[in-house]
Design the sequence.
């Protein structure tokens, strides 16, 4: 089978930095805890766990040692608890996420009702909501009805959302009853490039594969965008998850991957797919 790989896919700089910091911290410290899974990729999480990285869902679960702040960031309350417990900190928060948190605080200090467009349950959103007072989350157009009337609205967005979704929600918000609207583009340019490349590729192939964690927001967004252009799009974590029957009758395949998918997972999938013969 002919296999084409998207030009922009796999680890982004924020994830690379988080993995590098995890490696360096594990080499120096005996007890290292990640506050939540370091990235949304079970293969990477398993590898780091084998080296000693423990995962905790809350600061209360961390008795001692070093706390690794994942690329999605942490809330002000979590950082304060870490400080109070006297724990060491290795901060791997993506610089773009830090920017969103800073902008949220600035907008609030300027008197705006802070609105962030994104997935309510995602850790990046939770970190931003916990970094400034009274941040409202707009997951979809149904949430817009809850916006306060006759207020100054300051709009930001989850870094991994698509420009199309951001624009769609902004268009609806612009028709609501507000006194002032300030919009700051907080989208990740690398995520946008990945989305553009994936959409272009999926329209050139018979079947499309999106590799990455099933809970990864940016990977799910890639799969969603590809499926809108190519119905034969499959979101998988690795080669082992592939039902080989879906390959029957297809001559060309496209492969892309989320920002938390390691290169070795991509390479393994492409090699197996290229050499596959259905028997």
Sequence:
């Amino acid at each position: 089978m002919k296999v084409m790989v998207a030009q922009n896919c796999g680890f982004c700089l924020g994830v690379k930095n988080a993995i590098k910091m995890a490696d360096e911290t594990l080499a120096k410290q005996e007890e290292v805890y990640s506050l939540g899974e370091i990235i949304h990729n079970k293969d990477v999480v398993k590898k780091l766990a084998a080296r000693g990285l423990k995962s905790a869902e809350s600061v209360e679960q961390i008795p001692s040692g070093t706390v690794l702040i994942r690329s999605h960031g942490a809330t002000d309350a979590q950082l304060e608890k870490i400080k109070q417990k006297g724990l060491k900190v290795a901060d791997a928060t993506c610089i773009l996420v830090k920017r969103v948190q800073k902008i949220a605080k600035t907008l609030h200090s300027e008197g705006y009702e802070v609105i962030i467009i994104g997935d309510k349950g995602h850790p990046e959103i939770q970190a931003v909501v916990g970094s400034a007072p009274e941040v409202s989350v707009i997951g979809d157009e149904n949430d817009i009805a809850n916006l306060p009337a006759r207020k100054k609205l300051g709009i930001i967005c989850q870094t991994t959302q698509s420009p199309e979704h951001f624009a769609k929600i902004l268009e609806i918000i612009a028709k609501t009853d507000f006194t002032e609207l300030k919009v700051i583009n907080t989208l990740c340019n690398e995520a946008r490039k990945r989305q553009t490349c994936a959409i272009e590729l999926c329209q050139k192939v018979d079947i499309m594969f999106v590799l990455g964690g099933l809970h990864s927001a940016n990977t799910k967004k890639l799969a969603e965008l590809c499926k809108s252009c190519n119905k034969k799009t499959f979101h998988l974590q690795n080669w082992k998850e592939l039902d080989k029957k879906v390959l029957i009758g297809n001559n060309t395949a496209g492969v892309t991957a989320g920002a938390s998918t390691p290169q070795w997972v991509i390479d393994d999938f492409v090699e197996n797919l290229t050499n596959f013969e259905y028997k």
